[in-house]
Design goal:
Layout (H helix, E strand, L loop, with lengths): L4 E4 L5 H10 L1 E4 L5 H10 L5 E4 L6 H5 L6 E4 L9 H6 L3 E3 L6 H16 L2 H9 L21 E4 L3 H14 L3 E4 L14 E3 L2 H7 L2 E4 L13 H6 L4 E5 L8 H9 L3 E6 L12 H4 L3 E3 L8 H20 L11
Parallel strand pairs: 1-2, 1-3, 3-4, 4-5, 6-7, 6-9, 7-8, 9-10, 10-11, 11-12
Helix pairs in contact: 1-12, 5-7
Bound molecules: NADP nicotinamide-adenine-dinucleotide phosphate (NAP).
Length: 323
């Protein structure tokens, strides 16, 4: 097996970086500024593999990488990769499903609790020294247990979320998927499938867990928000562009939606002048669904294994179909 050149464009824990160095020459480019972009482009003609995340890979970049055999994404979502262009060039795409599922589901459930029970706002009250007497009714939150949770996209994370909600919090769950899929939960759990309209109209919480694709881009706009129950809460932990941000702001400002929890945005990091950043009804998080020590290490490990396997000519742990 020959040593190849690899372009690493996201920091990995030392043990995973070392595994790459043992088998290949590693060019490391972490900057996302103009100099970083220039270094990334300059490395492309040499490399057989890319490993990283958080950078949109354009078809034109592939034109500059004639030896590229594999892109190993340190993520489950693959919306940053030009699938058709990779297919044309026989470039394998690998990703990291499963190892992050439970951490993301935990975070989403945390967002459900935080928005409905107003955790951040109430913690800020204490921190600001404004807790001077018992809370008044205008400061109360709303129960989570027993409320209906709607899930758009009933894949790995959607199902892990349903388990938490139905089995842990006694919540009826209604999910929408493109293809028929069973609930995966005991029949005692109140979990059922429905149309997009059913989920929007019947849920107290609507959680977006579909991937970003041509079909889901802009899927939730003014019309969808109008169909949601008055006082419902929207959670998006999938990808920003699935939700039309200006329509969401209108639905919150009008009081129709109670709150939104957002871990993902159209532009990341969120620009300082974005109204989503400090809107009183929005819990905005820094794309942290999988950001635990355990899960980020497992993702790095899997992404490195994927890349090394493909370059050795072995099957990867998880490839994503590009055709
Ligand atoms: P997954 O197992 O592939 O689940 C996605 C589900 O959405 C699949 O069941 C898919 O069904 C369904 N779907 C696709 N298009 C749909 C549509 N138009 N309408 C209804 N359902 C549709 O993926 P996952 O591991 O659960 O991850 C889901 C997404 O979460 C990722 O793509 C990523 O964008 C996001 N994510 C975010 C974070 C974070 O840090 N916030 C972390 C991890 C993942 P089909 O079989 O029909 O395609």
């Amino acid at each position: 097996m020959s040593r190849e050149s690899i372009l690493l464009y996201r920091q990995l824990p030392p043990a995973q970086r070392e595994r790459l160095l043992q088998e290949h020459e590693v060019i490391e480019v972490y900057g996302r500024d103009a100099a970083g972009r220039e270094a990334f482009l300059a490395a492309l003609p040499k490399v057989a593999g890319l490993i990283g995340s958080g950078l949109k890979i354009e078809p034109a970049m592939l034109d500059q990488a004639p030896h590229l055999k594999v892109i190993s994404s340190v993520s489950v979502g693959v919306d940053h990769y030009p699938l058709a262009a990779m297919h044309e060039r026989d470039i394998v795409l690998c990703h990291t499903p499963d190892v992050l599922t439970d951490s993301v589901a935990d975070l989403v459930f945390g967002m459900v609790l935080a928005t409905s029970r107003r955790l951040v706002e109430m913690a800020q009250l204490v921190r600001d020294g404004q807790w001077r007497r018992s809370l008044e009714s205008d400061q109360y939150g709303w129960d989570v247990h027993g409320k209906t949770l709607g899930i758009l996209g009933y894949g790995r994370i959607g199902q892990a979320l349903a388990r938490r909600a139905a089995l842990g919090f006694g919540m009826p769950v209604i999910y929408h998927s493109r293809h028929p899929v069973g609930s995966g939960l005991p029949s005692s759990a109140k979990v059922s499938g429905g149309s997009l309209g059913d989920v929007l109209e019947r849920s107290d919480f609507v959680v977006v867990m579909v991937p970003l694709t041509a079909q889901t881009r802009g899927m939730l706009g003014a019309e969808a928000f109008a169909r949601m129950k008055p006082g419902a809460i929207l959670i998006n932990a999938a990808r920003g562009p699935i939700v039309q941000e200006s329509a969401l702001l209108e639905a919150l400002d009008s009081g129709h939606l109670r709150a939104a929890g957002l871990d993902v945005f159209d532009i990341e990091p969120l620009p300082l002048d974005s109204r989503l950043r400090d809107h009183p009804r929005i819990l905005a998080l820094p794309h942290m669904g999988s950001a635990t020590h355990e899960t980020r290490t497992a993702m790095a490990d899997m992404a490195v294994s994927n890349l090394l396997s493909v370059l050795r000519g072995d099957p990867a742990l998880a490839t994503y179909p590009t055709a």
